[in-house]
Amino acid sequence: MGTSTSKSIEDDIIQEDVDEQSDNTEGRYNEIIPYPVLGPGCIITWGRNSEGNTGRVQEENDERTFLMNPDFLQFESRKVKQVSAKAWHTVLLTEDGCYGFGWNQHANLGLGMKSRKISTVTKIPSTENVIQIATGEGHTLFLRKESKLYGCGWNENGQLPTSLVESNLLKVSMLQFTVLEHGEHISKITCGYRHSVFLTSQGKVYVADLTLNNKYRGFSRINNVSDTVVDVDATMNETMTLNKAGKIHLYGKNLPHEILNAQHGVGDYWFLKMSVGRHHSLLLNSNKQVVVLGDPFNCANSEDRIKLDDDIIQEYAKDFPGGCYLHKELFDSEVVDISAGRGHSLILTKNQTLYSFGDNSHGQLGREKTASLLGKVSLDHLHGENFNIQQIGAAAETSFVVISELEDQYTSSQDASLNVTTLDDVTEFNSL
């Protein structure tokens, strides 16, 4: 939801994209290949792939810059517990450590080197016993038991508090977090594009960002003493919190703080979930209505900005400029999960139906290239029977879902060999 006038990693990525893309989209659509289903914890990815963002290797003469059709990521049969993808790189938390793929220009995958892309699922060293992960624009956080924090990647803004005065941490390194009281532990970590956020078991929220605290590379508490927070999320320069009363607070570099109150325009409903994207946010209230804030199409400065149709949305409260909420009748059952990306959104219902809307310039909606308004993402070609989705994620220009259960495994005559890379196998190295 934030804006910035300074040159950022995003500027570099977008310029690379402009340099590479052609007006001719023919031949850039993903051919549906019956990958073997490997059981619970499988990942389905789609969207931008010019930096290996979907974790799938393209043929040498394949000039496609995105993979439109959702398909299984070939990965070893380790159960994936969590996936984090805020921008252009993805990290997987599995039963035996962490793996990553995608853009690695700031060593944000912790492989001990910088490279433009890592196209295959690659093991990240020193990530055993990790229980939670979070990714930013160019950095990654790892949380181990006993609230031990580790990180790697971009650190020019102090988003990785460490005694090492370096702009990039090439390897996963231990971070300094000394503000916990006796018996208190870190319950959640998340990343904005340029800052890191930590929620403690006592409902305190700390932010690591040199721009928020210019005195030292450390932590600043942002919520009031009387405000007990139960969930946090972050984007460019902002941090959004959900407290135990169901109220939303927004904190940022250029904001004091503003309260998005559950009483504004929706009666006595309170908020249950939130997801903060680059240009917009999604909220889910207790009436199972999806609230959209900001610009969900990432085209605020475009003359041909797409407008949400009146038949699809209802105007929300004037307290939320540009806000709206989606008709419940648009979905086949009540909404259970939401995810906001850079300019697109994913919504999951109780019936395990996945919906998408927003920017589709890289096929991140998982639907036809011209799609932008709300519609269903078809996953029918990937399985014989229904499966359950344990996590959905909208990143900068990619999307993913993680499968928790499969009723009928997909069979294939293809070789079921697994496409996993170790650090020794990585040959791409484009040093800055």
UniProtKB/TrEMBL annotation:
It comes from the Eukaryota. InterPro entries: Ran_GTPase-activating, RCC1/BLIP-II, Reg_chr_condens. RCC repeats lie at residues 41-96, 96-146. Gene3D superfamilies: Regulator of chromosome condensation 1/beta-lactamase-inhibitor protein II (2.130.10.30). Keywords: Receptor. The keyword RNA-binding does not apply. Residues 11-23 have a biased composition (Acidic residues). Residues 1-25 are annotated as: Disordered. This is Ultraviolet-B receptor UVR8.
